[in-house]
Amino acid sequence: MPRVVDLLAARAAEHDRDGTFPYQGVETVHEAGLLTLTVGQRYGGPGAGLADTVRVLSRLGRGDASVALLTAHTLLHHAEQARTAPWPAALYRRLLTESRRGPALVGTLRAGTGRPPAVTAHWHGDAWQLAGRAAHCAGAEALAWLAVEARTEEKLPRTGLFLVRADSVGLEIDPAADQLGLRAAAGHDVLLDGARVGTDAALLPRTPVAAAHPLTAAWRQLALTAVLLGTARAALDWSAGRLRGTAAHRRPVGELDARLTGAEELVHGLAARTDADPAAAERAPTVQLLAARTAADTVQQALTLTGSAGLDRRHPLERHLRDTLSLRTQLPAEDAVLDALGEALLGS
Q: In angstroms, rounded to a whole number, what is the distance separating the alpha carbons of residues 155 and 134?
């Protein structure tokens, strides 16, 4: 694992600067067996739980946040398949075959919290046809499969995920992304114009309204928070190295380390508890909010301590700052989390 992290870190600045996709980094993660870590044992995989997943993603986040994010999205699909098998058996076998041949990344295109899907699904003949533009799809140029959130054009519309091969007719990548952070993740737009999806690849709820299961949400929240914490740890490690030998900075650096360690323990501890008792997943929104705040504050305070050197593009701290900002958009909005917590205590 340390070798993988070092290899990712060695080229992270180059990919960030040029906005190029980290093919070599993804290949390194694949060769280490980490891209299929959560494939269920019944499918011949390791069947890693949430605790192991969080541990791995946190370490990858120290090397390259973009590669860690792409890994997280793929691991989440395999983990969900191991738990509830939403993918049809034939399609999932195809994904596993592709995963044995090389990196088979799976991306998810979802609308933001409280927003309607940007893609619609219209029943035409014997299949669904997807239309719309989905913005900022991480890894768009290198995905094998996309799980596209879309709303059906039915009398009682349903929202679900549609599994689409990345090379499908009617799917096009618009390479116009120029994001502040996670630049190597190639978060381009995906254009869908008549892409066909059979009924076997449409993961639709039976009723028009269907909330995500708390366990599914917890896996996503804690996995992505782990990437964020890994990025913050890399920022603190660089800053500590830069400030080494300056006695005046011992206490503030120690304070940052204590807070970040506490956040790491929260996330890793809840992940382990959730593996043992799925009911613990209900704590995930609170834990990810606190940990995300701590991670962001750690990077910003590290920048304050290092001064102008931290903003020099020859050093990694400013990249960690940008990646941290972008990673937080992958998590539920703070207002939504706090409103839900307040409503639970006070009522609607």
A: 23
168 by Cβ neighbours in 10 Å (0-12 / 13-18 / 19+) ranks as: middle
pLDDT digit string (tens) for 53-102?
999 999 999 999 999 999 999 999 999 999 999 999 999 999 999 999 99
Report the alpha-carbon distance of residue 63 to residue 10 in Å, rounded.
8
Dist. CA 124–CA 11, nearest whole Å: 46
pLDDT in tens, 257-297: 999 999 999 999 999 999 999 999 999 999 999 999 999 99
Which superfamily does CATH assign the domain made up of 2-103 to?
Acyl-CoA dehydrogenase/oxidase, N-terminal domain (1.10.540.10)
The one-character DSSP state at 47 is -
The DSSP letter of residue 20 is -
- What class, spelled out in words, does domain 214-346 have in CATH? mainly alpha
In one-letter notation, the amino acid at residue 263 is: A
- What is the CATH class of 108-203? mainly beta
Q: Which two tokens stand for residue 183?
A: 């630049």
Burial of 52 (0-12, 13-18, 19+ CB in 10 A): middle
Residues 6+ apart with CB under 8 A from 280: 270, 273, 274
Residue from 34, 32, 31, 28 nearest 12 by CA: 28
Q: Any idea where the domains of the chain sit in the sequence?
A: 2-103, 108-203, 214-346
- Nearest Cα residue to 12 out of 63, 73, 68: 63
Question: Which residue, 303, 301, 296, is CA-closest to 318?
Answer: 303
